[in-house]
Specification:
The complex is a heterotrimer of chains A (257), B (336) and C (845). Chain A is an alpha/beta fold and 257 residues long. Helix content of chain A is 27%, strand content 32%. Chain A has a single domain, classed as Rossmann fold. Chain B is of the alpha/beta class. Chain B has 2 domains: 195 residues, HUPs (Rossmann fold, 3-Layer(aba) Sandwich), CATH 3.40.50.620; 122 residues, TPP-binding domain (Rossmann fold, 3-Layer(aba) Sandwich), CATH 3.40.50. In chain B, 29% of the residues lie in helices and 25% in strands. Chain B is built from 9 helices and 17 strands. The longest helix of chain B has 17 residues. The radius of gyration of chain B is 22 Å and the shape is elongated. Chain B starts with a strand and ends with a helix. By secondary structure, chain C is α+β, with helices and mostly antiparallel strands. Chain C is built from 21 helices and 40 strands. In chain C, the strands form 7 sheets. A 9-stranded mixed β-sheet of chain C has the order 6-7-5-14-15-16-13-18-17, sandwiched between helices. In chain C, strands 1, 2, 9, 10, 11, 12, 19 and 20 form an 8-stranded mixed β-sheet that branches. Chain C has a 6-stranded mixed β-sheet with strand order 31-32-33-30-24-34, sandwiched between helices. In chain C, strand 19 and strand 20 form a beta hairpin. In chain C, 57% of the residues are buried. Classes of the chains: A alpha/beta (257), B alpha/beta (336), C alpha+beta (845). Chains in contact: A-B, A-C, B-C. At the A-B interface, helix 3, helix 4, strand 7, strand 8 and strand 9 of A face helix 3, helix 4, strand 7, strand 8 and strand 9 of B. Strand 9 of chain A pairs antiparallel with strand 12 of chain B, so a sheet runs across the interface.
Chain lengths: 257, 336, 845
């Protein structure tokens, strides 16, 4: 029976424009819904699929505000079995601190009831918002587990996990012995939507709370801002099919025709 | 005497990655603002051509590290090599290009050194908070990095004994020196644990030759407006005529009309074609992140105020189902 | 793209289903100089139309909603953009089964094909429904699913072909107004957008959830609030996908859980009106760019939907394994009374509202507004329930809108009794007798913002005195008391005191006042000072617009007294037609004057105890106002006007006094009346039994714009010389060969017993009158015979119904049937006039 742990992060889900609060310290989420960061959503789906194939249990862990329980329940509604929340105090977050907290949380979960290490820990390659690209690596290192990022395919082969990473025109294959960790990318699968029954079942999930903290690292956010908008005129080549000749002219001038 | 900036060179099977050239270019700027020199770290190779190319882009010296465990790429092995090299060379900063591999190996190095790592920077100001510069070891660096794939910028302060950073891809365009220099190459002896081989590449599979989405000179993209998987037929046709590839938005892959590998976006593929023809795509920020590397953009949309149209160089206002076949027909007319 | 105009005849703001259909209808009516704006893109600007469920259940108890729904359904059909999927309302409870009987009755009334189904029959039509969870269903085969987006596009295209210019992605920043032709009035001047300003004569606000915000720019109010209605798309579902159609199965409305389930190709759309009311301020709605989906498709809050998900799975088990692919908190507009807001705003001339309209009535209501703008009043239907002028100021506050919207949101699929009272936002307006009335155990009913006693518990002893029967079936006894019958009998035997403070009272003054009054009214107002005239006001097409009393108070002053339900609309109409030369001023004096009604055989004695004035027919003639001094005891005399008139058809007066004098007059009358059997008497008598016995028509019930005074039996022998609104149409109707086709009749129920032997009492909710063969009765205009008012006639010992009947069926004694709760009851025509005191002996001596 495989034991898989997924780390997820609650992020806003913006449209075509993203606004920053007046004090510049956060994304203005007033009109926005929240979701699990996309790579991680695929990570949860992958974990659930592996558990279905090989027999296993999926635990989902998040460091976040109380509302992040929503993301844990969502994971449960698509098949995760346990949800663990480490409450974030809303203060500064940096990748070192986050990784240290996650590593300690995982240690606690692994030592509880003599359960032992998770066979596989699944991270998202990077989070949609801060995009630090390092929490998974740091956490895995802190636990002494091997980790490969950019994973687009996972195969369990006995005690080993074989992963593939896409490169231009093909893919690389890596093989690690479990317990191991991966950083997955969206596209590894197409996540299922929760069924109505799944959603209702997820309400019964008892979220486990772990109170943990770690010292701040060396990277401190000063503020967020929108990049300067380069205002450019869009040249309208025409309306409807009658614009085709003008388009062909442009393509010719670029040398792609 | 200020130590040099050390740029980690990404390379694969004998070819220098564009990310490495960008890192060197960016590194020259950082080195100048520190009043320091620029050197490079070449891991798993001592290829003279790579050394020369590093020089062409500004490295005064190239430190090469070879070891059995570095026979191929492996994130842990490379990360350990960087960490150990940093300990031996004591540079002013370690920098890599913010590619997938670049971020991964720098994260590994940072974990091993227990130091902060600031990824995907667009600008670095190393004058410390007290203006004394970093050589005193007490100053903080002011760094701007990207969030949301580039849709937002984050200003951070970095306090670290050794700054570890990656520069965001395309934050600068790679630029060789007007006059290439011949760098001094020196081997760096590092004793690496064989166990690091556990995450080295085991195998490679080549799937397709020819044009791939990230390298395609032309991308014809379709969004929700295409309406179905079959609806992409005309887009395939146009892409074929132009020697390009078809891309799509998130809505398309979520609907299962096209595979994720065709998705242009922050969590999909970032394209950099000569022209991106975006049809029926409104332009959510995560899609824009994948498309913004395009040199030119032509948008086809019924909505003249759609984000994609506003950001495009040219636009055709109309229904893509009518416009795209018309463009293909016009191309065939000119080149029968 | 046409150049942005600097002027136009009419600017329509909002290109959802309403705005698009409106420009199409205006084009059909000859308007060419039109501009249509929307701040979002086309074809889907991101308003409520964009995510609408797009189905039409045609049966509604309310006439406007039902007939406009049918109208709209037919417009969609004519465009080929509609599919008759059929629809079934299922019942899980016995109360709902009763309501389905009521639905059947309305279906018959409005001529919509429908039938009741057993659970097994429901399962035959919709095999995925679990028949064990339901008690039955109400099936309507003409429930339709429409393409509202394409419909809007076609109607807009029609308008463009006629000359309408359309500008999407254009935001309205302001609507400027200028002083109007009458002092204090304002009129539309220009629409200011982010592309420039357009001077214009007319502006129509069809902005859905943003309508009030846009109206506020012009200084007007459209009372609505954006509110959430949750919907989720779940699938794939094989049995649905197998139909190969967008919609192959009837739509299910799970009425008792306030949900619906409709097929959407291979998925099921589940919608809910069961969750807590979630209202938003328009400023909190994101822009098109900021919204992840669209401004009116807000992030889903799953916790609010979970109970309905469970209930939906109960009914349709296969939903349990379906994936939730798409779910939103969708925004729609809610008004305080759940009716739309149509028509010219009272605040600004030529500023029109076409808001709070669902897709299912979109084309029809757009037509209503287009006709209103073209003809001065709609022709397709009398839209008085949707008229934006109906609101009183307290109803236009955010506080009121939100409170009422929250209260009625969960009644969207509710079982709402015709007399049902609101719980919150009560006692906004009332007469100066509240504490007295409370002490007398008044049961208050609210009419718009006004509280009026419906009956008094202190009269409970009269129930035994008169041996009044209760009502066996709870529904008939709801919001009713046998005390109302007892109060009626006491009034006819002794005397009753009625608080009429809710009268809306206006005054026209100035040298042109009387001439203007004559212009508004059918009957002659240029009468001697002191004379009062009961008169209709007509629409330009000669149908009823208002029905009220006008009193010549002085040479240059006319008082208008109208009922509380029509005060807003009548004030608007009276102001709207004021002459531009300043010769007439309008004032609303409602808060200055209180009115008490005293009627019954002992009324002269009671009132006579307070005054020495001559109260005989000579001194106080019928239909005249007489100024008197009332001795209210303790040395206090009150100046009052006595108006011998009676909506309950008995001897007595309406007494008009200054508001602050009211309590003194009340106390004096009650004291004087103690020896004469005077009892405080409520609306159960005044508005129902009293006037029904006299056959007095009620505006909004018997009197609507679809009917003219001849048909209503209110035409006088001659037509006055002076011109008035609707005169030409009225004259044409009078000279039509053969006379009116229908007549307003009073009928009496001859047998109340239902199938189970229980006595039933019709509510006056449009119950259809049928022939003895069970057929609907319609006239050549398609108007159906239905009960417009119903109630007891205690003094004649019969239960009375009012309905228009074809003249050939109007002879007294004609036997017919009325359908109530899907059962037939025999009725008989009593006549076209009063059944009690037909010679008006009590009134006129």
């Amino acid at each position: 029976m495989l034991r898989i742990l997924c780390c997820v992060k609650r992020v806003p889900a913006p449209g075509a424009r993203i606004n920053v609060t007046a004090d510049g310290l956060a994304v203005d989420a007033a009109h926005l819904g929240f979701t699990t960061s996309p790579h991680e959503e695929c990570g949860v789906e992958e974990a659930v699929q592996i558990a279905e194939r090989c027999g296993g249990e999926v635990t989902v862990l998040t460091l976040g505000p109380p509302e992040a329980a929503e993301q844990l329940r969502y994971a449960a509604s698509v098949g995760a079995h346990r949800g663990v929340l480490v409450p974030a105090d809303g203060g500064a977050r940096d990748p070192q601190r986050t990784a240290a907290i996650l590593a300690e949380a995982i240690r606690r979960l692994e030592s509880a009831d003599g359960a032992g290490p998770f066979d596989l820990i699944v991270f998202g390659n990077e989070s949609a918002d801060s995009g630090g690209f390092q929490v998974g690596v740091r956490t895995a290192y802190g636990l002494g587990r091997p980790i490969v990022n950019g994973v687009k395919g996972i195969e369990i082969d006995g005690p080993a996990v074989r992963v593939r990473r896409e490169i231009d025109g093909g893919f690389e294959v890596y093989e690690m012995e479990m317990p191991a960790a991966v950083g997955v990318k969206e596209g590894i699968n197409l996540p299922r939507y929760p069924t109505m029954k799944g959603r209702l079942a997820s309400k019964r999930l008892e979220i486990e709370i772990l109170d943990l903290d770690a010292p701040l690292g060396g990277q401190t956010m000063v503020r967020l801002r929108r990049p300067a908008e380069t205002v450019s005129e869009t040249a309208i080549l025409g309306h409807g099919p009658e614009a085709a000749p003008a388009v062909a002219d442009v393509l010719e001038s670029l040398g792609v025709l | 005497m200020i130590s040099p900036v050390l740029a980690v060179l990404e390379h694969d099977r004998g070819a220098m990655a564009e990310a490495a050239r960008e890192a060197l270019t960016f590194g020259r700027g950082l080195a100048e603002s520190l009043g320091a020199g620029l050197e490079a770290l070449l891991i798993g190779s001592d290829d003279a051509d790579l050394v020369a190319e590093a020089g062409a882009y500004g490295a005064a010296a190239v430190h090469t590290v070879t070891h059995p465990v570095l026979s191929d790429f492996g994130p842990e092995a490379w990360g350990e090599a960087i960490a150990r090299a940093a300990g031996m060379l004591k540079p002013a900063a370690v920098l890599a290009g913010g590619s997938e591999r670049g971020n991964e190996v720098m994260a590994q190095a940072a974990a091993r050194l227990d130091l902060p790592f600031v990824s995907n920077c667009t600008a670095i100001d190393p004058s410390g908070a007290d203006g004394s510069g970093v050589d005193s070891g007490s100053g903080e660096w002011s760094i701007t990095r990207i969030q949301w794939g580039g849709s937002l910028l984050e200003d951070v302060r970095l306090a670290a004994a050794l700054p570890l950073v990656t520069c965001g891809l395309h934050a600068v365009a790679s630029e060789p020196l007007p006059e290439p220099v011949s760098p001094a190459a020196a081997g760096l002896e590092i004793d690496l644990d064989p166990a690091l081989a556990r995450t080295v590449v085991k195998d490679r599979v080549v799937l397709e030759a020819g044009v791939t989405l990230p390298t395609a000179p032309v991308v014809v993209g379709g969004g929700r407006g295409v309406g179905s998987a079959e609806g992409f037929g005309p887009l395939e046709e146009l892409a074929g005529l132009l020697g390009g590839r078809v891309g799509c938005s998130r809505a398309v892959t979520n609907n299962g009309w096209r595979p994720h590998s065709d998705q242009v976006g922050q969590t999909g593929t970032r394209i950099a074609p000569e022209i991106y023809i975006a049809s029926g795509i409104s332009g959510a920020i995560q899609h824009w992140v994948g498309a913004m590397g395009s040199k030119h953009i032509l948008a086809i949309n019924t909505d003249p105020e759609a984000n994609m149209v506003v950001k495009a160089d040219w636009a055709v206002i109309g229904d893509l189902h009518e416009v795209i076949p018309a463009i293909s027909a016009e191309i065939r007319r000119r080149h029968p | 793209m046409p150049e942005f105009p600097s002027e136009a005849r009419c600017v329509v703001i909002g290109a959802g289903i309403v705005g698009n259909c409106l420009v199409g209808h205006l084009a059909k009516l000859g308007w060419t100089d039109l501009v249509l704006l929307d701040k979002g893109p086309l074809p889907n600007p991101g308003g409520s139309t964009g995510h609408a469920s797009n189905f039409i259940f045609p049966v509604d108890h309310n006439k406007e909603m039902c007939l406009l729904g049918e109208q709209s359904a037919n417009q969609y059909r004519d465009l080929g953009l509609s599919v008759d999927s059929g629809g079934i309302e299922v019942a899980r409870t016995p109360e709902r089964m009763d309501e389905l009987q009521r639905r059947m009755t309305s279906a018959v009334a409005w001529g919509v094909e429908a039938r009741l189904l057993t659970p097994a029959e429901v399962a035959e039509l919709v095999p995925f429904v679990n028949p064990e969870v339901i008690l039955g269903g109400f099936y309507c085969p003409t429930v339709s699913v429409v393409d509202s987006l394409e419909t809007g596009t076609r109607m807009r295209t029609l308008a463009v072909e006629a000359g309408c210019r359309v500008f999407a992605n254009t935001e309205v920043l302001d609507i400027t107004t200028r002083p109007g032709p009458v002092e204090g009035s304002r009129a539309v001047e220009a629409v200011v957008t982010d592309k420039g300003a357009i001077s214009t004569e007319h502006v129509v606000i069809a902005c859905g959830v943003w309508s009030n915000r846009v109206a506020n720019m012009a200084g007007a109010r459209i009372p609505l609030a954006p509110a959430v209605h949750q919907m989720a798309d779940v699938g794939p579902i094989d049995i649905l996908a197998a139909t190969g159609n967008e919609i192959g199965y009837p739509i299910v409305r799970d009425m008792d859980t306030f949900c619906y389930e409709r097929q959407s190709a291979g998925s099921m759309e589940v919608g809910s009106y069961a969750h807590r009311p979630i209202l938003h301020h328009p400023d909190d709605i994101p822009s098109n760019a900021e919204a992840a989906l669209s401004p009116t498709e807000m992030p889903f809050t799953p916790d609010d939907f979970d109970p309905q998900m469970e209930q939906a799975i109960e009914l349709i088990e296969l939903l349990g394994d379906a994936e939730i692919k798409y779910a939103i908190n969708g925004l729609l507009s809610l008004t305080p009374d759940a009716m739309p807001c149509l028509g010219e705003t009272p605040e600004v001339r030529n500023l029109w509202s076409a808001a709070a309209v669902w897709v299912k009535e979109g084309p029809g209501m757009a037509q209503v507004v287009a006709e209103w703008m073209t003809h001065g009043y709609p022709r397709v239907i009398d839209a008085h329930g949707a008229d934006i002028a109906r609101f009183y100021p307290p109803e236009q506050t955010d506080e009121h809108i939100w409170a009422r919207a929250a209260e009625h949101f969960n009644k969207t699929y509710g079982i709402v009794h015709p007399a049902e009272q609101w719980e919150g936002r009560r006692f906004l307006d009332a007469g100066p007798y509240l504490s007295r009335q409370r002490e007398l155990g008044a049961e208050f009913f609210q009419a718009r913002t006004w509280e009026r006693p419906q009956w008094f518990e202190s009269n409970a002893d009269l129930v035994d005195r008169y041996g009044v029967e209760g009502r066996e079936v709870e529904w008939d006894a709801r919001w009713w008391s046998p005390i109302t019958v007892a109060e009626h009998l006491n009034l006819r035997e002794n005397c009753g005191l009625v608080d009429l403070s809710a009268f809306q009272i206006f005054e026209l003054s100035g040298p042109g006042a009387v001439a203007y009054a004559d212009y508004l009214a059918v009957n002659r107002i240029d009468v001697p000072v002191g004379r009062a005239v009961y008169t209709p006001w007509l629409t330009p097409d000669g149908g009823f617009r208002s029905d009220l009393t006008m009193m010549r108070m002085a040479a240059d002053r006319v008082r208008i007294v109208t009922g509380v339900f029509d005060g807003g609309r009548d004030e608007y109409w009276a102001r709207r037609h004021l002459p531009h030369d300043g010769s007439v001023s309008f004032a609303n004096v409602t808060g200055e004057i209180t009115t008490l009604g005293v009627w019954g055989p002992n009324a002269p004695a009671v009132v006579g105890a307070l005054t020495d004035a001559d109260l005989s027919q000579a001194g106080s003639p019928y239909g005249w106002l007489v100024d008197v001094e009332l001795d209210c005891g303790g040395g206090r005399t009150v100046a009052a006007a006595l108006f011998r008139i009676s909506y309950v058809g008995d001897a007595g007066w309406e007494i008009y006094a200054a508001w602050d004098d009211g309590p003194a007059v009340w106390d004096a009358l009650m004291a004087a009346g103690a020896d004469w059997g005077l009892r405080p008497t409520g609306g159960g008598v005044y508005g129902t039994s009293g006037r029904l016995e006299k056959g007095y028509r009620l505006m909004g019930a018997e009197l609507e714009s679809e009917y003219n005074p001849l048909e209503a039996g209110l035409a006088r022998p001659r037509v006055k010389e002076a011109d008035f609104i609707g005169k030409q149409a009225y004259l044409r109707a009078r000279s039509a060969a053969g006379g009116p086709e229908v007549a307003m009749c009073t009928l009496a129920v001859t047998d109340h017993a239902d199938r189970r032997g229980r006595k039933r009492y019709m509510q006056g909710g449009n119950e259809p009158i049928l022939t003895l063969d069970g057929n609907r009765i319609t006239d050549s205009h398609g108007r159906v015979s239905r009960v417009t008012s119903a109630g007891p006639g205690p003094s004649v010992g019969r239960y009375l119904l009012m309905a228009y009947l074809p003249v050939e069926l109007a002879a007294p004694g004609t036997e017919l049937q009325v359908m109530y709760m899907n059962e037939l009851f025999p009725v008989e025509v009593a006549g076209t006039g009063a059944v009690f005191d037909p010679d008006d002996a009590r009134l006129k001596g």
